[in-house]
Amino acid sequence: MVDDGTKKTLASIPLLKTKAGPRDKVEWVSRLKEEYHALIKYVEMNKAQDNDWFRLESNKEGTRWFGKCWYMQDMLKYQFDVEFDIPVTYPATAPEIALPELDGKTAKMYRGGRICLTDHFKPLWARNVPKFGIAHAMALGLGPWLAVEVPDLISRGVVVYKEGSSEASGSS
């Protein structure tokens, strides 16, 4: 069911051990350290494979994450803002990743630009609590979503490349 490339990527992202969310004050700090460690490893692996496709940072508490993600097509870089909040029931509940500027541009998206991960990613997340974290959500959630949806949005003219910029825009 899962291709070899995905298995290799998944094997390279460290699994997390601490089952704690934002409400678990002391344990949450340990969980955040694990999250950052896994994210750093995943980004390093992507850079080594010339597959760098996102930047993330968080607020001081680690409860709000934001940054940029991008998709390359025909030597053009289509860049989008990415954001999500850590649910209070995390890690039992996966974060809902949003690309606000694509809100309403595809059926595989909920209000507010939250990408649809219900059918494929959320059952996988549920089977892997607390081992999966933010890096896994990016690798197995947002990455595949971008790979499927952005080319379609480009081909339909919904997303267009902004000349002289490394960003994409949704046409109105």
Could you write a compact summary of the structure shown?
By secondary structure, this protein is α+β, with helices and mostly antiparallel strands.
- How many beta-strand segments? 7
Q: With helices defined by DSSP (H or I, 4 residues minimum), what is the helix count?
A: 4
β-strand amount: 15-25%
User: Would you tell me the structural class of the helices and strands?
Assistant: alpha+beta
Helix content: 25-40%
Helix-strand string: HHEEEEEHHEE
Q: What's the shape?
A: globular
Distance between the termini: 38 Å
User: What does the largest sheet look like?
Assistant: 3 strands, antiparallel
User: Mean pLDDT score, rounded?
Assistant: 91
What can you tell me about this protein's structure?
The protein has 4 helices and 7 strands. The chain has 172 residues and is α+β, with helices and mostly antiparallel strands. A 3-stranded antiparallel beta sheet has the order 1-2-3, covered by helices on one side. Strand 4 and strand 5 form a beta hairpin. The radius of gyration is 16 Å and the shape is globular.
Summary tags:
single chain, 172 residues, alpha+beta, three-stranded antiparallel sheet, two-stranded antiparallel sheet, 20% strand
